[in-house]
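Shipment paperwork, digital attachment
Item: protein structure file
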Amino acid sequence: MNSVDWFKNAVIYHILIDRFAGFKSIKDWNKPIFLGGNIKGITEKLQYLNELGVNTIWISPFYKTNTYHGYHITDFFQVEPNFGTIGDLKELIELIHKHDMRIISDFVPNHCSKEHLYFKEAQNSKNSEFRDWFYFTKWPDEYLCFLSVKELPKFNLYHKNVKNYIINAAKHWLSLGLDGYRLDHVIGPSQDFWQEFNSEIKKLFPNVILIGEAWMKGIKFNELNTINIKYKLLKWLSGTASDNLLKDYEMVLDGVLDFRLQELIKDYIAKENLSKNEFYGKIENHYKNFNKNYFLPTFLDNHDINRFLFECKNNKEKLKKAAEIQFALPQPTIIYYGTEIGMTQNKSIWNISSYGDLQARQPMNWDNPDYDLLNFYKKLIKEKKEGVN
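Attachment content:
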Protein backbone atom coordinates (compact mmCIF):
# COMPACT_ATOMS: atom_id res chain seq x y z
CA MET A 1 0.00 0.00 0.00
CA ASN A 2 1.27 3.45 -0.90
CA SER A 3 2.17 5.24 2.34
CA VAL A 4 0.15 8.33 1.38
CA ASP A 5 -2.99 6.40 0.38
CA TRP A 6 -4.80 8.00 3.33
CA PHE A 7 -4.89 11.23 1.32
CA LYS A 8 -7.10 9.70 -1.40
CA ASN A 9 -10.17 10.04 0.79
CA ALA A 10 -9.20 13.32 2.40
CA VAL A 11 -11.92 15.93 2.87
CA ILE A 12 -9.78 18.92 3.77
CA TYR A 13 -10.82 22.06 5.62
CA HIS A 14 -8.60 25.03 4.79
CA ILE A 15 -8.12 27.52 7.64
CA LEU A 16 -6.49 30.96 7.74
CA ILE A 17 -5.49 30.96 11.42
CA ASP A 18 -5.94 34.69 12.09
CA ARG A 19 -9.41 34.77 10.51
CA PHE A 20 -11.00 31.55 11.78
CA ALA A 21 -11.55 31.58 15.54
CA GLY A 22 -10.30 33.16 18.74
CA PHE A 23 -10.40 36.78 17.55
CA LYS A 24 -11.63 39.48 19.92
CA SER A 25 -13.08 41.91 17.37
CA ILE A 26 -13.82 41.77 13.67
CA LYS A 27 -14.43 45.45 12.99
CA ASP A 28 -11.12 46.02 11.16
CA TRP A 29 -11.23 42.86 9.04
CA ASN A 30 -10.53 44.94 5.91
CA LYS A 31 -7.12 46.03 7.22
CA PRO A 32 -4.00 43.85 6.91
CA ILE A 33 -3.67 43.45 10.69
CA PHE A 34 -3.80 40.64 13.22
CA LEU A 35 -7.41 40.20 14.35
CA GLY A 36 -6.46 37.66 17.00
CA GLY A 37 -7.51 34.36 15.46
CA ASN A 38 -5.25 31.69 16.94
CA ILE A 39 -4.38 28.01 17.25
CA LYS A 40 -6.39 27.60 20.46
CA GLY A 41 -9.39 28.95 18.56
CA ILE A 42 -9.08 26.05 16.10
CA THR A 43 -8.81 23.57 18.98
CA GLU A 44 -12.00 25.02 20.48
CA LYS A 45 -13.81 24.55 17.16
CA LEU A 46 -12.80 20.92 16.65
CA GLN A 47 -16.29 19.77 17.58
CA TYR A 48 -17.70 21.94 14.77
CA LEU A 49 -15.18 20.45 12.30
CA ASN A 50 -15.91 16.95 13.55
CA GLU A 51 -19.67 17.44 13.10
CA LEU A 52 -19.07 18.90 9.63
CA GLY A 53 -17.37 15.60 8.85
CA VAL A 54 -14.02 16.72 7.43
CA ASN A 55 -11.10 14.41 8.15
CA THR A 56 -8.12 16.68 7.39
CA ILE A 57 -7.34 20.23 8.52
CA TRP A 58 -5.00 22.50 6.54
CA ILE A 59 -3.73 25.53 8.43
CA SER A 60 -1.96 28.63 7.12
CA PRO A 61 1.67 29.27 8.18
CA PHE A 62 2.03 29.42 11.98
CA TYR A 63 5.77 30.29 12.03
CA LYS A 64 7.04 33.58 13.45
CA THR A 65 5.89 36.33 11.11
CA ASN A 66 5.18 40.04 10.78
CA THR A 67 1.92 39.59 8.87
CA TYR A 68 -1.54 38.38 9.91
CA HIS A 69 -1.63 35.75 7.11
CA GLY A 70 1.71 34.23 8.10
CA TYR A 71 3.43 34.07 4.70
CA HIS A 72 6.14 36.62 5.61
CA ILE A 73 8.27 34.42 7.87
CA THR A 74 10.82 35.97 10.24
CA ASP A 75 11.83 32.71 11.98
CA PHE A 76 11.14 29.24 10.57
CA PHE A 77 11.75 27.53 13.93
CA GLN A 78 9.38 29.51 16.19
CA VAL A 79 5.60 29.72 16.50
CA GLU A 80 4.17 33.23 15.96
CA PRO A 81 3.12 34.55 19.43
CA ASN A 82 -0.04 36.11 17.94
CA PHE A 83 -1.10 32.57 16.99
CA GLY A 84 -0.10 30.95 20.29
CA THR A 85 2.67 28.72 21.60
CA ILE A 86 4.35 25.50 20.60
CA GLY A 87 2.26 23.92 23.39
CA ASP A 88 -0.93 25.10 21.65
CA LEU A 89 0.28 23.61 18.37
CA LYS A 90 1.17 20.27 19.99
CA GLU A 91 -2.23 20.15 21.69
CA LEU A 92 -4.03 20.86 18.40
CA ILE A 93 -2.08 18.12 16.58
CA GLU A 94 -2.72 15.63 19.38
CA LEU A 95 -6.47 16.34 19.57
CA ILE A 96 -6.86 16.21 15.79
CA HIS A 97 -5.26 12.76 15.79
CA LYS A 98 -7.50 11.69 18.69
CA HIS A 99 -10.48 12.60 16.50
CA ASP A 100 -9.08 10.33 13.74
CA MET A 101 -8.30 13.37 11.65
CA ARG A 102 -5.08 14.60 10.04
CA ILE A 103 -3.45 18.01 9.95
CA ILE A 104 -1.31 19.60 7.26
CA SER A 105 0.15 23.08 7.21
CA ASP A 106 1.49 25.59 4.74
CA PHE A 107 5.25 25.61 4.30
CA VAL A 108 7.08 28.42 2.48
CA PRO A 109 10.55 27.43 1.21
CA ASN A 110 11.10 30.00 -1.55
CA HIS A 111 11.47 33.22 0.46
CA CYS A 112 11.36 34.86 3.87
CA SER A 113 10.47 38.24 5.33
CA LYS A 114 13.03 41.02 4.91
CA GLU A 115 12.85 41.20 8.73
CA HIS A 116 14.35 37.70 8.97
CA LEU A 117 17.57 37.93 11.00
CA TYR A 118 19.69 36.29 8.27
CA PHE A 119 18.54 38.73 5.61
CA LYS A 120 19.11 41.71 7.88
CA GLU A 121 22.64 40.45 8.57
CA ALA A 122 23.21 39.95 4.83
CA GLN A 123 22.17 43.57 4.20
CA ASN A 124 24.18 44.98 7.09
CA SER A 125 27.55 43.46 6.28
CA LYS A 126 29.27 42.86 2.97
CA ASN A 127 31.20 40.02 4.55
CA SER A 128 28.23 38.32 6.17
CA GLU A 129 28.08 34.56 5.65
CA PHE A 130 24.40 35.11 4.83
CA ARG A 131 25.03 37.36 1.85
CA ASP A 132 25.12 34.34 -0.47
CA TRP A 133 21.88 33.04 1.00
CA PHE A 134 20.03 35.56 -1.16
CA TYR A 135 20.24 36.90 -4.72
CA PHE A 136 21.61 40.43 -4.44
CA THR A 137 21.69 42.09 -7.85
CA LYS A 138 23.06 45.29 -6.33
CA TRP A 139 23.93 44.96 -2.65
CA PRO A 140 22.40 45.89 -0.25
CA ASP A 141 19.06 47.13 -1.59
CA GLU A 142 18.43 45.31 -4.85
CA TYR A 143 17.75 41.60 -4.81
CA LEU A 144 15.49 38.93 -6.26
CA CYS A 145 12.34 38.43 -4.28
CA PHE A 146 9.00 36.65 -4.45
CA LEU A 147 7.85 38.11 -7.79
CA SER A 148 8.11 41.90 -7.18
CA VAL A 149 7.38 41.87 -3.45
CA LYS A 150 10.40 43.62 -1.89
CA GLU A 151 9.31 42.49 1.60
CA LEU A 152 10.04 38.89 0.55
CA PRO A 153 13.68 38.27 -0.48
CA LYS A 154 14.15 35.01 -2.37
CA PHE A 155 16.35 32.30 -0.88
CA ASN A 156 19.29 30.94 -2.89
CA LEU A 157 18.28 27.28 -2.51
CA TYR A 158 21.28 26.19 -4.60
CA HIS A 159 23.41 27.10 -1.59
CA LYS A 160 23.95 23.98 0.54
CA ASN A 161 23.44 25.75 3.88
CA VAL A 162 20.21 27.40 2.76
CA LYS A 163 18.84 24.15 1.43
CA ASN A 164 19.69 22.39 4.70
CA TYR A 165 18.15 25.21 6.73
CA ILE A 166 14.84 24.97 4.89
CA ILE A 167 14.71 21.15 4.83
CA ASN A 168 15.59 21.00 8.54
CA ALA A 169 12.81 23.47 9.35
CA ALA A 170 10.34 21.27 7.44
CA LYS A 171 11.54 18.17 9.34
CA HIS A 172 11.38 20.00 12.67
CA TRP A 173 7.62 20.61 12.45
CA LEU A 174 6.85 17.20 10.97
CA SER A 175 8.53 15.67 14.02
CA LEU A 176 5.72 17.20 16.12
CA GLY A 177 3.20 15.10 14.22
CA LEU A 178 2.07 17.21 11.25
CA ASP A 179 0.80 14.93 8.47
CA GLY A 180 2.18 16.94 5.58
CA TYR A 181 2.51 20.26 3.83
CA ARG A 182 0.84 22.42 1.23
CA LEU A 183 3.99 23.86 -0.32
CA ASP A 184 3.70 27.51 -1.20
CA HIS A 185 4.82 28.86 -4.61
CA VAL A 186 6.50 25.65 -5.79
CA ILE A 187 7.39 27.33 -9.09
CA GLY A 188 10.00 29.44 -7.23
CA PRO A 189 12.51 26.71 -6.25
CA SER A 190 14.02 24.37 -8.85
CA GLN A 191 12.98 20.79 -9.66
CA ASP A 192 16.30 19.62 -8.19
CA PHE A 193 15.43 21.27 -4.91
CA TRP A 194 12.02 19.57 -4.83
CA GLN A 195 13.56 16.22 -5.66
CA GLU A 196 15.91 16.53 -2.71
CA PHE A 197 13.26 17.99 -0.40
CA ASN A 198 10.89 15.12 -1.19
CA SER A 199 13.54 12.46 -0.77
CA GLU A 200 14.89 13.87 2.52
CA ILE A 201 11.40 14.26 4.02
CA LYS A 202 10.12 10.85 2.91
CA LYS A 203 13.17 9.06 4.33
CA LEU A 204 12.12 10.14 7.81
CA PHE A 205 8.37 10.60 7.34
CA PRO A 206 7.14 8.20 4.63
CA ASN A 207 3.44 8.83 5.38
CA VAL A 208 3.42 12.61 5.04
CA ILE A 209 1.78 14.24 2.05
CA LEU A 210 3.52 16.93 -0.02
CA ILE A 211 1.17 18.97 -2.20
CA GLY A 212 2.40 21.90 -4.28
CA GLU A 213 0.86 25.22 -5.26
CA ALA A 214 1.79 25.63 -8.94
CA TRP A 215 0.04 28.73 -10.22
CA MET A 216 1.04 31.67 -12.40
CA LYS A 217 -1.86 34.08 -11.92
CA GLY A 218 -0.78 37.69 -11.82
CA ILE A 219 2.86 37.00 -12.72
CA LYS A 220 4.33 39.68 -14.97
CA PHE A 221 6.89 39.09 -17.72
CA ASN A 222 9.64 40.87 -15.74
CA GLU A 223 9.06 38.50 -12.79
CA LEU A 224 9.85 35.34 -14.73
CA ASN A 225 13.48 35.53 -13.56
CA THR A 226 12.26 34.75 -10.01
CA ILE A 227 10.77 31.37 -10.94
CA ASN A 228 12.39 28.03 -11.79
CA ILE A 229 10.29 26.03 -14.23
CA LYS A 230 11.02 24.51 -17.64
CA TYR A 231 9.81 26.46 -20.70
CA LYS A 232 8.59 29.23 -18.42
CA LEU A 233 7.84 31.73 -21.16
CA LEU A 234 5.63 29.23 -22.98
CA LYS A 235 3.86 28.28 -19.76
CA TRP A 236 3.42 31.92 -18.85
CA LEU A 237 1.87 32.59 -22.25
CA SER A 238 -0.47 29.59 -21.97
CA GLY A 239 -2.27 30.78 -18.83
CA THR A 240 -2.32 30.64 -15.06
CA ALA A 241 -2.71 26.90 -14.50
CA SER A 242 -2.00 24.85 -17.59
CA ASP A 243 -1.84 21.06 -17.31
CA ASN A 244 1.81 21.31 -18.42
CA LEU A 245 2.64 23.36 -15.35
CA LEU A 246 0.76 21.01 -12.98
CA LYS A 247 2.46 18.02 -14.61
CA ASP A 248 5.95 19.36 -13.92
CA TYR A 249 5.76 18.08 -10.34
CA GLU A 250 4.63 14.51 -11.06
CA MET A 251 8.00 13.01 -10.28
CA VAL A 252 8.93 15.21 -7.33
CA LEU A 253 5.78 15.73 -5.22
CA ASP A 254 2.67 13.71 -4.30
CA GLY A 255 0.45 16.15 -6.15
CA VAL A 256 -0.52 19.76 -6.77
CA LEU A 257 -3.62 21.84 -6.10
CA ASP A 258 -5.89 21.63 -9.13
CA PHE A 259 -6.13 25.24 -10.29
CA ARG A 260 -7.13 24.08 -13.77
CA LEU A 261 -10.21 22.30 -12.45
CA GLN A 262 -11.15 25.35 -10.37
CA GLU A 263 -11.09 27.47 -13.54
CA LEU A 264 -13.25 24.93 -15.41
CA ILE A 265 -15.91 24.74 -12.67
CA LYS A 266 -15.98 28.53 -12.45
CA ASP A 267 -16.40 28.82 -16.25
CA TYR A 268 -19.17 26.20 -16.28
CA ILE A 269 -21.21 27.10 -13.18
CA ALA A 270 -20.45 30.70 -12.23
CA LYS A 271 -19.80 32.24 -15.65
CA GLU A 272 -21.92 29.82 -17.71
CA ASN A 273 -19.34 29.99 -20.51
CA LEU A 274 -19.27 26.22 -21.11
CA SER A 275 -22.00 23.74 -22.00
CA LYS A 276 -22.33 20.57 -19.91
CA ASN A 277 -20.74 18.48 -22.70
CA GLU A 278 -17.86 20.91 -23.14
CA PHE A 279 -17.23 20.97 -19.40
CA TYR A 280 -17.15 17.19 -18.91
CA GLY A 281 -15.10 16.77 -22.10
CA LYS A 282 -12.51 19.20 -20.78
CA ILE A 283 -12.42 17.45 -17.38
CA GLU A 284 -11.90 14.08 -19.03
CA ASN A 285 -9.03 15.43 -21.15
CA HIS A 286 -7.57 17.14 -18.09
CA TYR A 287 -7.40 13.95 -16.01
CA LYS A 288 -6.01 11.96 -18.95
CA ASN A 289 -2.84 14.03 -18.72
CA PHE A 290 -1.86 12.72 -15.29
CA ASN A 291 -0.64 9.55 -13.66
CA LYS A 292 -3.49 8.07 -11.60
CA ASN A 293 -1.36 8.05 -8.42
CA TYR A 294 -0.75 11.79 -8.67
CA PHE A 295 -3.08 13.77 -6.43
CA LEU A 296 -4.95 16.79 -7.80
CA PRO A 297 -6.91 18.08 -4.77
CA THR A 298 -9.99 20.03 -5.85
CA PHE A 299 -11.17 23.37 -4.47
CA LEU A 300 -13.71 26.02 -5.40
CA ASP A 301 -12.00 28.93 -3.68
CA ASN A 302 -9.09 29.85 -1.41
CA HIS A 303 -7.41 32.82 0.27
CA ASP A 304 -5.90 34.15 -2.98
CA ILE A 305 -8.99 34.18 -5.22
CA ASN A 306 -12.58 35.37 -5.00
CA ARG A 307 -14.97 33.29 -2.97
CA PHE A 308 -16.95 31.02 -5.27
CA LEU A 309 -20.29 32.26 -3.98
CA PHE A 310 -19.27 35.80 -4.94
CA GLU A 311 -18.32 34.54 -8.43
CA CYS A 312 -21.84 33.07 -8.64
CA LYS A 313 -23.33 36.49 -7.81
CA ASN A 314 -24.36 34.98 -4.44
CA ASN A 315 -26.59 32.34 -6.03
CA LYS A 316 -26.40 29.50 -3.49
CA GLU A 317 -27.97 26.97 -5.85
CA LYS A 318 -25.02 27.49 -8.18
CA LEU A 319 -22.60 26.96 -5.28
CA LYS A 320 -24.40 23.72 -4.39
CA LYS A 321 -24.18 22.51 -7.98
CA ALA A 322 -20.45 23.29 -8.08
CA ALA A 323 -19.90 21.51 -4.74
CA GLU A 324 -21.76 18.43 -6.02
CA ILE A 325 -19.45 18.30 -9.05
CA GLN A 326 -16.39 18.83 -6.85
CA PHE A 327 -17.33 16.06 -4.39
CA ALA A 328 -18.14 13.59 -7.18
CA LEU A 329 -14.59 13.76 -8.56
CA PRO A 330 -12.14 11.00 -7.53
CA GLN A 331 -9.72 13.37 -5.82
CA PRO A 332 -9.15 14.79 -2.31
CA THR A 333 -11.63 17.62 -1.71
CA ILE A 334 -10.83 20.99 -0.13
CA ILE A 335 -13.34 23.34 1.51
CA TYR A 336 -12.12 26.87 2.24
CA TYR A 337 -13.32 27.99 5.67
CA GLY A 338 -16.77 29.57 5.54
CA THR A 339 -17.72 28.32 2.07
CA GLU A 340 -19.94 25.75 3.80
CA ILE A 341 -21.93 28.45 5.64
CA GLY A 342 -22.39 30.84 2.70
CA MET A 343 -19.54 33.32 3.19
CA THR A 344 -19.12 35.76 0.32
CA GLN A 345 -17.48 39.17 -0.20
CA ASN A 346 -18.30 42.75 -1.24
CA LYS A 347 -15.93 43.31 -4.18
CA SER A 348 -13.63 41.31 -6.41
CA ILE A 349 -10.11 41.04 -5.01
CA TRP A 350 -8.82 41.90 -8.50
CA ASN A 351 -10.57 45.28 -8.51
CA ILE A 352 -8.87 46.67 -5.42
CA SER A 353 -5.42 48.14 -5.84
CA SER A 354 -3.94 47.03 -2.52
CA TYR A 355 -4.88 44.28 -0.06
CA GLY A 356 -7.79 43.19 -2.25
CA ASP A 357 -7.28 39.64 -1.00
CA LEU A 358 -8.74 40.71 2.38
CA GLN A 359 -12.14 40.47 0.69
CA ALA A 360 -11.74 36.68 0.54
CA ARG A 361 -10.24 36.53 4.04
CA GLN A 362 -13.08 37.90 6.12
CA PRO A 363 -13.45 36.50 9.66
CA MET A 364 -15.42 33.26 9.94
CA ASN A 365 -19.08 34.10 10.31
CA TRP A 366 -19.88 32.18 13.50
CA ASP A 367 -22.90 34.34 14.35
CA ASN A 368 -24.98 33.97 11.22
CA PRO A 369 -24.30 30.75 9.32
CA ASP A 370 -26.53 29.50 6.52
CA TYR A 371 -27.77 26.26 8.11
CA ASP A 372 -29.35 24.98 4.91
CA LEU A 373 -26.01 25.19 3.12
CA LEU A 374 -24.17 23.76 6.14
CA ASN A 375 -26.46 20.71 6.21
CA PHE A 376 -26.03 20.32 2.46
CA TYR A 377 -22.23 20.22 2.92
CA LYS A 378 -22.52 17.75 5.83
CA LYS A 379 -24.51 15.41 3.58
CA LEU A 380 -22.02 15.76 0.68
CA ILE A 381 -19.10 15.02 3.01
CA LYS A 382 -20.81 12.00 4.56
CA GLU A 383 -21.61 10.58 1.13
CA LYS A 384 -18.07 11.18 -0.11
CA LYS A 385 -16.61 9.37 2.91
CA GLU A 386 -19.03 6.48 2.53
CA GLY A 387 -18.07 6.18 -1.13
CA VAL A 388 -21.53 7.02 -2.47
CA ASN A 389 -20.11 9.42 -5.06
